[in-house]
Specification:
The protein is of the alpha/beta class. 61% of the residues lie in helices and 11% in strands. Strands 8-11-12-5-13-14-15 form a seven-stranded mixed sheet, sandwiched between helices. It has a four-stranded antiparallel sheet with strand order 4-3-6-7, with no helix packed on it. α8 packs antiparallel against α10 and α8 packs parallel to α11.
């Protein structure tokens, strides 16, 4: 019997295309509403044209009342339609965030290519920018396409007034381009300074004991102050520039209105224009100018939204061409490290080159090496947190990273070198922040030798763990993290420096747990900085790092040196 992974869309941008397809009716409705909204804006100039030119001549009160009532109804209808349109865009923005937020977060947290601390925040920030643009600025750009109609209406009333309007709009657009060019660097510097200041505070909070014990606060405060002052200086420059160009745009708009009235009166005196035409031209020119001005104010938002859309599309496209199918025998297959080569971006030399290793079910591999010899890099490669430049890491016939996340969660248990617990209860931390069966949680805690310790906590397994509550020692936190790695007896267990911070009894418990896992058929990779005779005794293979090539031994005898094979491992440097 075979187990099939979830099929994912093979097209490069199927998720995005599906979202556009699902939004077609709503977007069409918004576009139609925009047509009616902008047509109804012609009601005011039409009203002025007829009231000032026709009603005085006919002296018809009924016509005045009917025109006024119709104009009021049209204006209120336009406002209502605009409200509906804005509400629809706001709902669409929320829908976008809800539809893609979980996908992006899952992509950022689970994919090895995105294994960077800021990728998840950046992805969600891009999505937030998209939602903000759709909710706040999209109407400005939807209405902008109607601005030429207002300018054409002014031109039809009189070409001279049309030329005057186009000249003012040209100055407005020129000022927007100049403002963007001048304020780009101050805005970038202000964002960078703000980020640096925030990072200083976050680092100080994470290491507050060290900061207090070593009296580092004056130095950190001074560093924070310099970043904040830089931020304030750059922001002040940016805001001063924005204020100047805001006043310039307002001045251009006011001069346009006065210019149209002045030129309009002159044309009236020349018997080339009526008073109704002059006021109608003034209203239409004002509408068109405001549409362009609103779009110019949101130009930066449009650029950020386009960049955010490209980022989101790229993230989702990369997530679509993933896997596929796997057989139930995968759970009982060997872990194969086949010709793996790796070096960190920017690194000059490879950490591993054509590294080969086979780990059978029920085997324990002990990786020994000093600092900066590649132990942590190897453990991260095996669990898929980073990808090899060449080669593959398979479980059976399928690459480990191609398996769906929920399958890898069942297969892999991992203890990183620097263990972290999440804000939540002890029970949630062991169950990997899920609502797992309590029996499985207790079994993992017993295996890690932390069950009795947890029972002595104020609320037992329901005790909250957070940065503000530090009732656990480093050893206790490490054993809870070990229990998380052992949760539900995973098929592949990778432990990076598991014995660090553990006392002798806890190490014996760890050794017993490793024996149990071996008996259950788990493949175990264990890293150690120093040699451990007790662990070497239960290990099936020992990989010694630190020289030009790793040495692989089995049962205490040298099995082979990779340099004796045609494909070898080069360990000249470690990033």
């Amino acid at each position: 019997m075979s187990r099939l992974g979830r099929k994912r869309t093979a097209s490069k941008s199927g998720v995005i295309r599906a979202a556009w397809k699902a939004s077609r009716f709503g977007l069409l409705t918004i576009f139609v509403l925009s047509i009616f909204i902008n047509i109804l804006r012609f009601v005011t100039p039409y009203y002025l044209l007829h009231v000032l030119d026709r009603v005085p001549a006919s002296r018809s009160v009924e016509t005045l009342v009917m025109l006024t009532a119709a104009a009021i109804v049209a204006i209120l209808t336009g406002l209502a339609l605009d409200g509906i349109r804005r509400r629809m865009l706001a709902r669409w923005g929320i829908w976008i965030e809800q539809r893609f937020g979980a996908k992006l977060l899952d992509r950022s947290l689970n994919d090895a290519i995105s294994a960077h601390s800021s990728i998840a925040r950046q992805s969600l920030d891009d999505l937030s920018k998209l939602r903000s643009f759709v909710t706040r600025s999209a109407t400005s750009w939807l209405d902008l396409i109607w601005a030429p109609l207002f300018f054409f209406g002014v031109y039809l009333i009189h070409p001279l007034l049309g030329a005057l309007t186009l000249g003012a709009v040209g100055l407005l657009m020129l000022s927007g381009v100049v403002q963007e060019a001048i304020s780009r660097e101050p805005r970038r510097a202000a964002r960078q300074a703000s980020s640096e200041a925030g990072q200083i505070v976050l680092a100080a909070e994470r290491n507050i004991e060290t900061v207090g014990a070593l009296s580092m606060s004056p130095t950190l405060i001074e560093k924070w102050r310099r970043s904040v002052f830089t931020q304030h200086d750059e922001r002040d420059r940016s805001e001063a520039s924005a204020t100047f160009y805001l006043l310039m745009r307002r001045a251009i708009g006011q001069c346009l209105r006065i210019g149209i009235i002045g030129v309009g009166i002159w044309l009236f005196l020349q018997h080339s224009l009526t008073l109704g035409g002059m006021f109608a031209a003034r209203v239409m020119a004002g509408y068109g100018y405001r549409l362009v001005e609103k779009a110019a104010r949101s130009w930066v938002n449009l650029k950020e939204a386009i960049a955010a859309y490209k980022n989101v599309k790229m993230q989702l496209a990369e997530d679509e061409v993933r896997p596929v199918s796997y057989h139930s025998s995968t759970y009982n297959s060997a872990v194969l490290i086949e010709d793996v080569s790796f070096r960190y971006p920017g690194g000059r030399d490879h950490i591993f080159r054509k590294f080969r290793l086979e780990i059978l079910p029920g085997e324990l591999v002990l990786v020994i090496g000093g600092a900066a010899t590649g132990k942590t890099t190897l453990s991260r490669l095996i669990v898929g947190r980073i990808l090899p430049n060449r080669g593959r890491i398979n479980i059976g016939d399928i690459e480990l990273t191609r398996l769906p996340a929920e399958v890898r969660a069942e297969l892999v248990g991992y203890l990183p070198q620097h263990t972290e617990l999440f804000s939540g209860t002890v029970r949630q931390n062991i169950a990997r922040m899920s609502d797992g069966a309590f029996e499985d949680i207790i079994a993992a805690a017993r295996r890690a030798g932390v069950h009795e310790t947890i029972l002595r906590l104020p609320q037992g397994y329901d005790t909250e763990i957070s940065d503000d509550i530090s009732g656990l020692s480093g050893s206790e936190r490490k054993r809870i993290a070990l229990a998380r790695a052992f949760y539900r007896s995973p098929r592949l267990v990778v432990l990076d420096e598991p014995a660090a911070n553990l006392d002798r009894p806890s190490r014996r418990v760890l050794e017993a747990a490793l024996r149990e896992l071996k008996n259950e058929g788990a493949s175990i990779i264990l890293t150690q900085t120093v040699r451990s005779p007790r662990l070497e005794k239960i290990a099936d293979k020992v990989v010694t790092l630190g020289g030009r090539f790793p040495v692989i031994t089995r049962s205490g005898a040298v099995e082979e040196r990779p340099e004796e094979r045609s494909q070898s491992v080069d360990l000249r440097s470690v990033g």
